C-alpha cells in the first residue's frame, strides 16, 4: 500500500518525502542510517529500507505523519483507512485467541476448553422496564416455555415488539448463571463474523480485572483491549454507531454511580478517574451513539438503573430441561459417560432441579466425572445431593474477598437463620429491613447468596431478596441446625429454635414440605461433610445432632410393626436420609433393630432404588422384603424411551439381533437390576421376597433367576400379578433348577 502511494508521487514530492523522513524523531531514536536513505533512489528501495529497520505498524504511522506534513491529506487518509482495515482484522484474530479458550477450576494444568464445544444455550428472557416497573428476578430456574419471550446471545440487540433496537442492554444473572461465558460466546462469534455484523468493533472491559487503571480515557480503555502498540484510536472512534462496549461483571467495580454532571467527560481522549469515564459512557455524554452491553448480578441493578436511559433488561434464568442434558454431553465429550451421569442426576429430583443453575450442572458433572474415572459404578456413588451443594458452597466462597474466616462463619450463621425462618414460614421473598436487621448487608458476601429485586417506584419497603433456588434455601436452612456459633450468634434469628428435634417432630406430624431440609440435615452431619466444611470452606459444623437423628429414625417406625412380628421399615424417606448421610456405621446402627422392609404403592425411581440398595447392603438382619403395588422406573419417560432405542449406523441396516443379543439387551434394561444386585450381597439373610402387583415385565426374570441361583437363604418368592410371559417363566425356571437354589415356596 505504501509502495503504491510512493510510486504515485512526482520526483520532487518523492525527494521531499525522503528529506522529511530523515528528520523524523521517534521515541528511542530513528534508526535508518543516512547513507542507506540516500542510496534508496526509488520507492521500492525506500520501502525495503524502512521495513528493515521498523515494524510495519511503525512504518505506516510515520508515513501517514509525513504525508500530512507534506499536505498530501488524501494519501494520508488512504493509508490510514488501509491501516484501520488491517488493524481490525488483527484485532478480531486477537479476540478469538483471547476468548475462545478458557480454563476451568477443575481443568488439568495447561488444559483449556473451547467455548465452541462447551457453550450450552442458556435461557434468557427479555424484561422490558420503564422507570415505574420492577425488574423481576425469577426465583429459581423455572421452565420458561410458557413465560416471556426467550432470546439468545445472537438476538440481544434485535428490535423489540415496538420495532425499537436497544442501544443499551443489561444482562442480569445470579453468580454461576453463565454471564461471563455468554460474553465469551458473543466476542468469539462476532470476531468470526457470524453475529453482530452491525458493529465494526466490540471492546470488552472486564470489571473484575484487578489491573484496571485508576485513571483512564476511553481511548486508553480501547488501546488496552488491542494487542498492538499503535492503535488508530481516532479513526476507530469516528463511527460511534458501529462500536459496542461490553462491561462484564459491573457489580465488581464497587464505586458509587453518582457523578456531578459537570464532571462527566465528552472527550474520548480526556484522562479522568475510571468511575468518571465509565459514568460518562453510561450517561451517554461520551460516544452517545455507541452501544453498551452490561452484565451484572442483581445487586447492582438499582444504582445502575439511575444512570441509564432507554435500557433493555434481560435475565439469564439458567438451563431449560432440554439443555441440561446437552450440557452433560458437552462436558463429558463421551456419549456413554454423559448418558450415565445424566441418568444419575435425572433420577434425583432435587439434583435435577438444581442443575438448572449452570454452575450446579458443572458441580454435578465435575464430581460424577471423578467418580467415573475411579471406575466406580454410579449406582454405588456416595456423592449425594448434600455433597454437591457443599461443593457449590465452596465455589461461592472462593469468589469473595479473602477476609477473616470468623466473618464468613458469622455471616453464614445469619444467612442460615434467615433461610430457616423462611422455610418455617413458607416464605421465599425477604424485605430489605429483614436483611439489615439480621446484619446481612455485607456487599462482599450478600450478592453471592441472594438475588436482589428492585421494587416499583413509589413502593417504600425497599429491595426484595431471594435465594437463587428454593432447594438452596432449604440447604442453608438445614445448615442453621449444625453450624457452630460459639454462643456469639449476632442478629435476630426470629422465633425459631435451633433444636433439631423440633424440626424432626414437625416433619413427622404435619410438615411434609420440610423433607428436603431434613434430607440436607442428614447429609451435613456426615463426617465427610464436616471435615470438608472445616478444612476447605472454613466453617465449623457440629456432629452433635447425629444421636438425635438416630433416635428419631428408630422411634418413628415402632408403631408400624405388628406384635409377634419383626420390626418393620415402611417409609421410603428413611432410606433417603440414610443414603444422604452415606455412613455405613450409622446406617447399620439405625437398621440393626429392624428385620422387615415393607413399601406399598410407590413409583420407585432409579435414585430411590439406589437409596434402597445402599441400605440393604448395610442391613445383614434384613429377613423380609415386601414391595406391593410398586413400579420401577429407571429414568423419566422421555429419557427411558431415548435410552431404550439402540444407536445404529448404516452398517446395522437389514440385520436382526439373535436371541442371545435380545436377552442381553433386555437384561441390561431390567428395572429391578439394582435391587437384585443389592440382595445378592454376601452375608444376606433374606428369607422372603414379595413383589406383588408390581406388573414386572419379562426382562426382570433374568435378574430374579440369578438371585434364586445364588442366594443361600431365600426360601419364599411371591410374584403376584406380573407380566412375565412364557419366556420369562422359562428364565425363572433356569434359576430354580440351580443346585444352590434354596427356595421352598413360589407363589
From TrEMBL:
<keyword id="KW-0597">Phosphoprotein</keyword>
<keyword id="KW-0333">Golgi apparatus</keyword>
<feature type="region of interest" description="Disordered">
    <location>
        <begin position="641"/>
        <end position="666"/>
    </location>
</feature>
<keyword id="KW-1271">Inflammasome</keyword>
<keyword id="KW-0378">Hydrolase</keyword>
<dbReference type="Pfam" id="PF17776">
    <property type="entry name" value="NLRC4_HD2"/>
</dbReference>
<protein>
    <submittedName>
        <fullName>NLRP3 protein</fullName>
    </submittedName>
</protein>
<dbReference type="Pfam" id="PF17779">
    <property type="entry name" value="WHD_NOD2"/>
</dbReference>
<dbReference type="InterPro" id="IPR032675">
    <property type="entry name" value="LRR_dom_sf"/>
</dbReference>
<keyword id="KW-0832">Ubl conjugation</keyword>
<keyword id="KW-0964">Secreted</keyword>
<dbReference type="GO" id="GO:0006954">
    <property type="term" value="P:inflammatory response"/>
</dbReference>
<keyword id="KW-0804">Transcription</keyword>
<dbReference type="Pfam" id="PF02758">
    <property type="entry name" value="PYRIN"/>
</dbReference>
<dbReference type="InterPro" id="IPR007111">
    <property type="entry name" value="NACHT_NTPase"/>
</dbReference>
<keyword id="KW-0547">Nucleotide-binding</keyword>
<dbReference type="InterPro" id="IPR050637">
    <property type="entry name" value="NLRP_innate_immun_reg"/>
</dbReference>
<keyword id="KW-0805">Transcription regulation</keyword>
<dbReference type="GO" id="GO:0012505">
    <property type="term" value="C:endomembrane system"/>
</dbReference>
<dbReference type="InterPro" id="IPR011029">
    <property type="entry name" value="DEATH-like_dom_sf"/>
</dbReference>
<feature type="domain" description="Pyrin">
    <location>
        <begin position="1"/>
        <end position="85"/>
    </location>
</feature>
<dbReference type="GO" id="GO:0061702">
    <property type="term" value="C:canonical inflammasome complex"/>
</dbReference>
<dbReference type="InterPro" id="IPR004020">
    <property type="entry name" value="DAPIN"/>
</dbReference>
<keyword id="KW-0067">ATP-binding</keyword>
<keyword id="KW-0395">Inflammatory response</keyword>
<dbReference type="GO" id="GO:0045087">
    <property type="term" value="P:innate immune response"/>
</dbReference>
<keyword id="KW-0256">Endoplasmic reticulum</keyword>
<keyword id="KW-0677">Repeat</keyword>
<feature type="domain" description="NACHT">
    <location>
        <begin position="167"/>
        <end position="370"/>
    </location>
</feature>
<dbReference type="InterPro" id="IPR027417">
    <property type="entry name" value="P-loop_NTPase"/>
</dbReference>
<dbReference type="InterPro" id="IPR041075">
    <property type="entry name" value="NOD1/2_WH"/>
</dbReference>
<dbReference type="InterPro" id="IPR041267">
    <property type="entry name" value="NLRP_HD2"/>
</dbReference>
<dbReference type="Pfam" id="PF05729">
    <property type="entry name" value="NACHT"/>
</dbReference>
<dbReference type="GO" id="GO:0005524">
    <property type="term" value="F:ATP binding"/>
</dbReference>
<dbReference type="GO" id="GO:0005634">
    <property type="term" value="C:nucleus"/>
</dbReference>
<keyword id="KW-0963">Cytoplasm</keyword>
Amino acid at each position: 500500500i505504501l509502495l503504491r502511494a510512493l510510486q504515485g508521487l512526482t520526483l520532487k514530492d518523492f525527494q521531499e518525502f525522503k528529506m522529511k523522513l530523515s528528520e523524523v524523531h521517534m521515541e528511542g531514536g530513528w534508526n535508518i542510517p543516512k547513507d542507506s536513505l540516500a542510496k534508496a533512489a526509488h520507492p521500492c528501495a525506500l520501502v525495503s529500507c524502512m521495513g528493515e529497520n521498523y515494524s510495519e505498524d511503525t512504518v505506516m504511522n510515520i508515513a501517514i505523519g509525513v504525508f500530512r506534513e507534506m499536505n498530501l491529506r488524501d494519501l494520508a487518509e488512504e493509508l490510514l483507512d488501509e491501516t484501520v482495515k488491517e488493524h481490525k482484522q488483527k484485532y478480531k484474530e486477537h479476540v478469538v485467541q483471547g476468548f475462545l479458550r478458557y480454563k476451568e477450576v477443575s481443568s488439568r494444568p495447561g488444559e483449556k476448553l473451547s467455548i465452541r464445544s462447551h457453550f450450552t444455550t442458556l435461557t434468557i428472557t427479555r424484561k422490558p422496564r420503564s422507570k415505574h416497573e420492577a425488574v423481576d428476578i425469577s426465583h429459581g430456574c423455572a421452565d420458561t416455555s410458557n413465560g416471556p419471550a426467550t432470546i439468545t446471545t445472537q438476538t440481544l440487540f434485535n428490535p423489540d415488539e415496538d420495532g425499537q433496537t436497544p442501544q443499551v442492554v443489561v444482562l442480569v444473572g445470579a453468580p454461576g448463571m453463565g454471564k461471563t461465558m455468554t460474553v465469551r460466546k458473543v466476542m468469539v462469534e462476532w470476531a468470526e463474523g457470524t453475529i453482530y455484523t452491525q458493529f465494526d468493533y466490540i471492546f470488552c472491559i472486564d470489571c473484575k480485572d484487578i489491573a484496571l487503571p485508576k485513571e483512564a480515557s476511553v481511548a486508553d480503555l480501547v488501546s488496552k483491549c488491542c494487542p498492538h502498540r499503535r492503535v488508530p484510536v481516532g479513526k476507530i472512534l469516528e463511527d460511534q454507531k458501529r462500536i459496542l462496549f461490553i462491561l462484564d461483571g459491573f457489580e465488581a467495580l464497587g464505586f458509587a454511580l453518582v457523578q456531578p454532571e459537570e464532571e462527566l467527560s465528552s472527550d474520548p481522549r480526556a484522562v479522568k478517574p475510571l468511575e468518571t469515564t465509565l459514568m460518562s459512557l453510561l450517561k451517554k455524554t461520551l460516544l452517545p451513539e455507541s452501544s453498551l452491553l452490561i452484565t451484572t448480578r442483581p445487586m447492582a441493578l438499582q444504582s445502575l438503573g439511575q444512570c441509564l436511559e432507554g435500557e433493555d433488561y434481560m435475565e439469564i434464568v439458567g438451563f431449560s430441561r432440554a439443555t441440561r442434558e446437552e450440557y452433560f454431553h458437552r462436558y463429558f465429550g463421551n456419549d456413554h459417560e454423559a448418558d450415565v451421569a445424566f441418568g444419575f442426576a435425572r433420577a434425583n429430583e432435587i439434583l435435577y432441579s438444581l442443575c438448572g443453575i449452570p454452575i450446579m450442572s458443572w458441580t454435578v458433572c465435575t464430581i460424577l466425572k471423578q467418580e467415573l474415572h475411579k471406575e466406580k459404578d454410579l449406582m454405588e456413588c456416595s456423592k449425594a445431593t448434600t455433597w454437591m451443594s457443599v461443593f457449590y458452597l465452596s465455589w461461592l466462597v472462593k469468589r469473595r474477598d479473602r477476609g477473616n474466616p470468623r466473618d464468613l462463619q458469622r455471616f453464614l450463621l445469619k444467612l442460615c437463620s434467615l433461610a430457616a425462618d423462611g422455610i418455617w414460614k413458607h416464605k421465599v421473598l425477604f424485605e430489605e429491613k429483614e436483611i439489615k436487621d439480621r446484619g446481612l448487608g455485607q456487599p462482599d458476601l450478600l450478592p453471592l447468596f441472594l438475588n436482589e429485586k428492585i421494587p416499583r417506584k413509589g413502593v417504600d419497603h425497599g429491595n426484595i431478596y431471594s435465594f437463587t433456588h428454593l432447594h438452596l434455601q432449604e440447604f442453608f436452612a438445614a445448615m442453621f441446625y449444625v453450624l457452630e456459633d460459639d454462643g456469639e450468634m449476632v442478629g435476630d434469628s426470629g422465633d425459631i429454635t435451633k433444636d433439631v428435634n423440633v424440626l424432626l417432630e414437625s416433619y413427622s406430624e404435619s410438615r411434609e414440605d420440610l423433607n428436603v431440609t431434613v434430607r440436607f440435615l442428614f447429609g451435613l452431619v456426615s463426617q465427610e461433610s464436616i471435615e470438608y466444611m472445616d478444612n476447605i470452606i472454613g466453617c465449623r459444623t457440629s456432629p452433635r445432632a447425629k444421636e438425635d437423628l438416630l433416635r428419631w429414625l428408630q422411634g418413628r417406625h415402632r408403631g408400624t410393626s405388628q406384635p409377634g412380628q419383626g420390626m418393620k421399615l415402611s417409609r421410603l424417606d428413611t432410606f433417603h436420609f440414610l443414603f444422604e448421610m452415606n455412613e455405613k456405621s450409622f446406617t447399620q446402627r439405625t437398621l440393626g433393630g429392624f428385620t422387615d422392609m415393607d413399601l406399598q404403592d410407590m413409583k420407585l425411581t432409579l435414585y430411590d432404588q439406589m437409596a434402597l440398595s445402599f441400605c440393604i447392603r448395610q442391613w445383614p438382619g434384613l429377613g423380609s422384603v415386601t414391595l406391593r403395588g410398586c413400579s420401577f422406573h429407571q429414568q423419566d419417560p422421555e429419557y427411558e424411551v431415548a435410552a431404550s432405542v439402540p444407536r445404529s449406523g448404516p452398517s446395522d441396516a437389514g440385520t436382526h439381533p439373535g436371541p442371545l443379543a435380545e436377552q442381553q439387551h433386555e437384561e441390561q434394561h431390567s428395572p429391578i437390576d439394582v435391587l437384585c444386585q443389592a440382595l445378592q450381597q454376601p452375608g444376606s439373610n433374606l428369607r422372603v421376597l414379595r413383589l406383588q402387583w408390581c406388573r414386572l415385565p419379562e426382562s426382570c426374570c433374568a435378574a430374579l433367576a440369578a438371585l434364586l441361583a445364588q442366594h443361600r437363604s431365600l426360601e419364599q418368592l411371591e410374584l403376584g400379578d406380573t407380566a412375565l410371559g412364557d419366556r420369562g417363566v422359562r428364565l425363572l425356571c433356569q434359576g430354580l433348577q440351580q443346585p444352590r437354589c434354596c427356595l421352598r415356596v413360589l407363589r
